Amino acid sequence: METRCIPCRSQHDYGAPSAPNYVENGELSATATRALDDVLRRVDDAIARGWRRSGDDSVYVGDPGVAYYLMRRGDVDAARELCGPPSSKRAAKAKDCSIMCGRTGVDLVAALCAPQEEAFLQRAAAIVARADVACSLELLEADEWLYGRVGFLRALLELRREGRAVPGLDDAIRRVVAATLASGRRHGGDGLRYAWHGKEYVGAAHGYAGILYLLLKAGCRDPALRALADWLRGLETREGNWPSSLPDARSKLVHFCHGAPGVVFAMAEAYRVYGDEAFRDACLRGAETVWHYGLLTKGPGLCHGVAGNGYSLLAAYRVSCDPRWLHRAVVFGTCIGDDGVCARQRTPDNPFSLFEGLAGSACFLRDLRESRLRAGLPLYEVDSVELARRGGLKIVLTKISFFFLPGASRGLSGHVPGNRTAR
Ligand SMILES: [Zn+2]
């Protein structure tokens, strides 16, 4: 099990006598909102003082990912400027289809902060035009989220969520789903089997959890998908984690990218779709593992950090309606700015980026404050409102002021560049 983590503090857990009171009547308490606002102010300040353009054009760790956060914060003009102009028209290549590391991700962020309909449609059309490459099993070998077909599918779902008429969009979604199923059958016969770089990965970034989650979110109800969900559930280890890859059954990592946190989203969605409580139970066992081992020393980010794991605690909250999970998510949020936690964390290679650094942490903090029931791990999770309604919870959108104040950011100073570490 994950050893590169800071042990959870049981005295901070929900219901412990000395725990802070973060949830009252199913809502965030004033104590929680004050604590989260304070961390968010300091994160924003650290970004303002430390971030510089890197020239990296990936959403994952480059400037377009920071643009995504700026857009979320309301700084749309700055975000748009960071995305740059549309790329020149040339034949699409496989890498262009990647939502995290290719032009598709850049065009998607640019579309979301486009000033007019025309600019939105231009970027959307550039994404949809790559569907032929994304659907070719010869040209695009990867099916996973970070580089592959279901990441491209996630970009299409984001365009669909915008609710604007994009020519060819629905057809592209249908074709990419069909191609992903065909690819899985090519390796799996009657069932679905997927590999990336010759290895069967299990987690959200490169493996089965991400493929299952996004196919379900796209509305795919192929019977083979139910079998895949049952099979994935069965890969749970005795410790309540999931292996990174097969056939190696060890389960050392508790990251969004590898291990229980990413599987939590897949199990939650399988429960929503199939209504089988075995999926909900697996989801909550995975979230329990995240609580105990998910305060990672790798940093505050989304892919293999505290914020990504915090999103899976929120997913558990939406599934269960149990305030325990909201409380625990707030604990993770406050730990992002905790001096003691920061002192034990390494500095990510890209300390301000969306998926390794503080831009992703800030998204998590804002989601916790603003719209925890609609919260979604950026460019991975798809709107969960429907699920919240099923659970009978009210949608509460709390307006907050966004501060951008100078001030101390002692604990967060550990996340500025200097100590480069392996991802
Ligand atoms: Zn990762």
Q: Features of this protein?
A:
423 residues, mainly alpha, two-stranded antiparallel sheet, two-stranded antiparallel ribbon, disordered C terminus, binds zinc ion
Written description of the protein model:
The chain has helices at residues 30-50, 63-73, 76-83, 103-112, 117-128, 131-135, 149-161, 169-188, 208-217, 223-234, 260-274, 277-293, 306-320, 323-335, 339-343, 358-370, 385-390; strands spanning 23-24, 27-28, 200-201, 245-246. By secondary structure, it is mainly alpha-helical. The chain has a two-stranded antiparallel sheet. The longest helix is centred in the first third of the chain and has 21 residues, at 30-50. The radius of gyration is 20 Å and the shape is globular. It starts with 22 loop residues before the first strand and ends in a 33-residue tail after the last helix.
Q: Could you provide a short overview of the structure?
A:
Strands 1-2 form a two-stranded antiparallel sheet. A two-stranded antiparallel sheet has the order 3-4.
Protein topology:
Layout: E1 23-24, E2 27-28, H1 30-50, H2 63-73, H3 76-83, H4 103-112, H5 117-128, H6 131-135, H7 149-161, H8 169-188, E3 200-201, H9 208-217, H10 223-234, E4 245-246, H11 260-274, H12 277-293, H13 306-320, H14 323-335, H15 339-343, H16 358-370, H17 385-390
Antiparallel strand pairs: 1-2, 3-4
This protein binds zinc ion.
Zinc ion binds at residues 205, 255, 257, 303-304.
